Amino acid sequence: MNRNVVDDRNVKALAGAVKACWSCRGPVDVRAMFCATCDALQGPTAVDHFERLELSRTFDIDLADLDRSYFRLQRLLHPDRFAAKSAPERAHSLAHSTALNRAYEILKDPLTCAEYLLTCLGAPLAGEDKTTADPVLLGEALERREALADATDALAVAALAAAAERDAEVCRATIGRAFTGNDLKAARAHTLRLRYLAKFLDDARVRQPRGAARRAASAHGATT
To answer: 63-101, pLDDT tens digit by residue?
Structure first.
């Protein structure tokens, strides 16, 4: 396999750009992971998480493609493969592995993927966006929290969690359509709602024993 992977999305921006190899000082394409002259591992390039994992910049990531790309690159760049190499290569390998781990963790979760993609597209949800001026979303969030506080047993909590998870699934689909249609305003609004739902689900899981959510979801399916 050619280890000097070139992502077509970088061609226009980086065409012809070279740097000096840290080892042999020969010319190295800035997109190359290895020097074509001495085969020394180069440091990671400052690219976004999608490019780092050689994926298209999209919300609707095929998780199987994500896994394949991640594990292939980790096998290629993992520090264990460079344990007997020079100190710079060991450091570069660790930096690559750390960057791949970070990219993978961000992109595999729909919420953090949406937040990151909004940032890439110039419409970030700022860290202070913990509250919302949207009265509908605010009312929904308060209603769910009141219901969770009033829940008297594990099955009631699980039923609330199952309903929130169904709403989150619809929300994720809506976010995907918004990004596909380049409607960043809608993508931001529904990502913020997904953030609220994710926080609610985290709080609900704290209050329910393992397996209760699955039982509530099954009960809901049996009645529909």
So the answer is: 999 999 999 999 999 999 999 999 999 999 999 999 999
Return the amino acid letter for 55: L
User: Which residues, 6+ apart, have CB-to-CB distance to 77 below 8 Å?
Assistant: 33, 41, 93, 96, 97, 100
Do 165 and 206 lie in a common domain? Answer: yes
pLDDT band at 138 (very low <50, low <70, confident <90, very high): confident
Residues 25 and 93 in one domain: yes
Same domain, 142 and 203: yes
| Dist CA 23 CA 62 (whole Å) | 37
Which tens digits make up the pLDDT trace of 31-49? Answer: 899 999 999 999 999 899 9
pTM: predicted TM-score of the whole model, two decimal places: 0.81
In a domain, 1, yes or no: no
Q: 31-45 burial, b for 16+ CB within 10 Å, e for fewer?
A: bbbbbeeeebbbbbb
CATH classification at residue 197: 1.20.1280.20
